[in-house]
Design goal:
This protein is mostly helical. The protein has three domains: 209 residues, no CATH class; 51 residues, no CATH class; 113 residues. The chain contains 17 helices and no strands. α1 runs parallel beside α8.
Amino acid sequence: MQLIEFAIPFFILAIVAELAYGVWTGRNTYRLNDSVSSLFMGVLSQARRFVTLGVGAYVYYLITRYLSLPLMDASHWFTWVLAFVLYDFCYYWLHRLGHERTILWAAHVAHHQSEDYNLTTALRQTSTGFLFGWIFYIPMFLLGIPAEVVVTVGALNLIYQFWVHTEHLPKLGWYEWIFVTPSNHRVHHAQNDIYLDRNYGGVFILWDRMFGSFQEELDKEPVIFGIRGPLRSFNPVHALTHIYVDMFKDSWHAASWKDKLYVWVARTGWQPADVARDFPRTKSDLSTFEKYDPAVAALVNWYGFYQLIAVMGMLALLITSELGYWQGVAGWTLLLATTMTTTFWLEARDSQRVMRWEILRLGALAVLMIFALQQGTAASAVIVAALYWVINLLILIALPRAASEATAAAH
């Protein structure tokens, strides 16, 4: 059941409604650059299906066939209730270890990088969670819960988590004791010392209360969102890989072979003593914390919004098309390139260098359009792609000058 795909239009409507409410009440929690970055990450997370192999799914198949208890009845209500609760229990431990062990944090960190907290933050998802996340759900298959039930309750779990990513809802009374709410999930996204590594539940906050990881949101301690080692970038490649890069560097520089190996399974934030001395990583001073918010021209912001609409449309086209593997890879690559170059503009990088990336990207898109025509792709799809290409080129004619003027004015 593709419940998440069905839910996407409702997610978008909710985002628009939250934005309008924030503007109307004078408490807007959105910035275009941060929101575009989060939604780019969400698009890439959904597009990951075109380039990754389902190792976890194959392991689940083998377990179901050779190791599991007899399959439960997927038509019985008890199977669904058990699966829903057990899935959240497994998610709790995946989520908790995703904060406590560096190799798992490397995948999960993408969800926490936003320094704003709104419904786009909910859609800021990793593209590398498939590497190890599947391991935590093995118990469900060992118990004989049918795969379609696991997949469906997993989608419901993720959909539930969407609404709790808002600053506009206060504490919800008795509901706070049992379920994850906006208040206790705001704590989870905080970088304040008192809030770090707390409130891991997806649907039920009961697990946190049971296992000692619960922290209430305090009036005297306003939440500061983001991560302690600030990303200072909207680039999705940097967002998805920076912890992996840090681990590789620490392992490379460590003198001891024991440390070289332990880096990969160590508690989050740990560095070998010699590496910490020679290559220390700085953390945010929350007393002087400022959000990453480069000044850019209005045209750059409009360009970022235009590309957001474009990549969402491109993703929808890829999902609904019957693509071969390498066609899917080409589509994913184009999505990645588009999100990267757009964030370069939003980061106020050197215009001439960004233009070289843009020319390369548009050139690759032109080649793909020619190839698509030769392969008999529907003319309407090619016409839409060509229209996007032309509009993109026209905006790029004016963009470098506008960006340069804004940068000069900021300095």
